[in-house]
Structure formats: C-alpha cells, structure tokens
Amino acid sequence: MTPASGSPVLLDIEGRIARVTLNRPDQGNALDISTAEAFKLAIGRIAADPGVRVVFITGAGKRFCVGGDIQSFAARPDQLAENIGHILGPINAALEQLASLPVIVVTGLNGAVGGGGVGLALCADLVVAAESVKLGAGYSAIGLSPDAGASWQLTRRIGVMRAKELFLTNRPLTAAECLAWGIVNTVVPDAEFAAACEQLTTRLAQAAHGSSLSIKHLIDHAASNSLEAHLALEGKNMLVAAASDDAREGVRAFMEKRRPKFD
After folding, report:
1. How many structural domains is the chain composed of?
2. Are 130 and 184 in contact (CB under 8 A)?
3. What is the rounded CA–CA span in Å between residue 43 and residue 160?
4. From CA 200, how far away is CA 129, in angstroms rounded?
5. What DSSP string describes 81-102?
C-alpha cells in the first residue's frame, strides 16, 4: 500500500525500484514525529517486498531535508528532549532496517541538506547531488548534537579532521565541495537531476543483483577485515557468484557480444 499524497513520506514501488520521497516541501522536508514515523513505515513496507532491489530516497520540492523541525521544537521548549526522542526512535529504527536489507540504496539530493538530513542523505551506497545543493551540519549553532547517523556516515567518508571541521564550524559546503570531499558520487545540473537519478536507479535495478550485493558487502567490510580474512571472504563470495545463473548469463552474453539479461 502506498501512502496518500498528503503523507509526509511518499512511497512508490514500481518493479524492482522503491522510491521514497520526503514530502514536506513547504517546511524543507524537516523531520518531525509524523515524518519519522512515516519514514519508518515506508522502510518496513520495502522490507516486506522481496522484489525490491534498489531504494531511491529524495525530497519533494527544492530541498532534500533541512534536518529537525525547529519550529516544532520551539513550540514546546520544555519538552525538547522528549520531542527529539520521539523522532530519533523511528528514524534510527528505519535506518538500521534499511542497512540490513538486500538492496542497493541511492539518495538524490535536490537542494539544502542539514542536520539529521545529512544522515538520511548519506545512508546510501551512491549519492547524486544537484548543483544547487548546500550541505551543512548546524547542530552546534542551536546547542544540539549530531543524529540520524550523520557523524558516523561523514567520518567514514571524509575522515576525522574534516568531519570535525564540518560539525564544529557549521560551514556549508557547495555541491562541488561535497564532490571534492568525497561526500557525494556525482553532481549534475538541476535541470538534469531527475533524469540522472532515474537513469542510475534503472541501471542498478537491471544489474546482476547477487553481484551488486556481494560488492556492497565486501567494500563495507574492507576497512575492518585483515587481508587474510578479506581474501577468504572474497573467495567465498566469488565461488557463490560463479555458481549463479547470472554469472553464466554474463559470460554467455560477453562471448555473444550482447547485453546480459539478468534475473
């Protein structure tokens, strides 16, 4: 079941691709309790669909996600910690579930990214940014601390020193700087953003899924494995892949000089 168009998070599952859209454009897709709960529900529905191979997350309107809904925080200042806790619970549960799914995750950043939106933006295997993107932390400017995996994701991508710079100074990064720092994979003109995201997700959905998941698993564990352990893991995964129908089709298509048709 797909949420109604008025939902704070939209879900569209078409074939092998699940598209998740943060849907509070007038509020910069800011995260409040209803949005957090809707996001968790959307990821749960994706988890229940074994046909999904690619998950694409983006924001409606001109901004991806500006972070927490500060207006709602200000409305109940005496309940700030409780309010944030009600947001973090479902958001963290959704991110953990998403990370455990046998899917490739892509995020499309279509404008401002801030606060907890950074964690959502970087929960992906591949990140596409429009030229208009500005990414900033903002936590220390309002006396708060990173959440939604933002500090974990950024430190893994850009290292300790740059992560500290970004979080401590709150200096916003342009899309070009995000690309240079290794935060995003590619930057495209705003006018070409939707088409570029569609092209990438379609290509990933048509790939040999077992191979894609093996690549994801190996790279995600490379930094924590010894060389000996990683060679063993590579060998195990290679033999599993070599026994698959996709590998046979891939080799056959290569010899026949045609594009493979993977299951």
Report:
1. 2
2. no
3. 30
4. 12
5. HHHHHHHHHHHHHHHHHHHHSS
Q: Are 101 and 47 contacting, i.e. CB atoms less than 8 angstroms apart?
A: yes
Measured CA to CA, the distance from residue 220 to residue 179 in angstroms comes to 20
Residue-wise pLDDT for 196-217, tens only, equals: 999 999 999 999 999 999 999 9
pLDDT single digits (tens) 47-79: 999 999 999 999 999 999 999 888 888 888 888
Sign of CA dihedral 55, 61, 66, 72: negative
Q: Cα–Cα distance between 169 and 141 in angstroms, integer? A: 9
Position 114 pLDDT exceeds 90: yes
Q: Measured between alpha carbons, how far is 40 from 46 in angstroms, rounded to an integer?
A: 10
Alpha helices per DSSP H over the chain: 33-47, 70-75, 80-100, 116-121, 150-158, 160-169, 175-181, 193-206, 209-222, 227-242, 245-255
Collapse the DSSP code of 78 into the 3-class scheme (helix H, G, I; strand E, B; otherwise coil) and give the result: helix
User: Based on the domain organization, do 127 and 182 belong to the same domain?
Assistant: yes
Could you tell me if residue 146 is inside a domain? yes
Domain extent, residue 53, equals: 9-206
Residues 61 and 81 in one domain: yes
Is residue 111 left, alpha or beta, with left meaning phi > 0 and alpha meaning psi from -120 to 50? left
Q: How far apart are CA 163 and CA 153, in angstroms?
A: 9
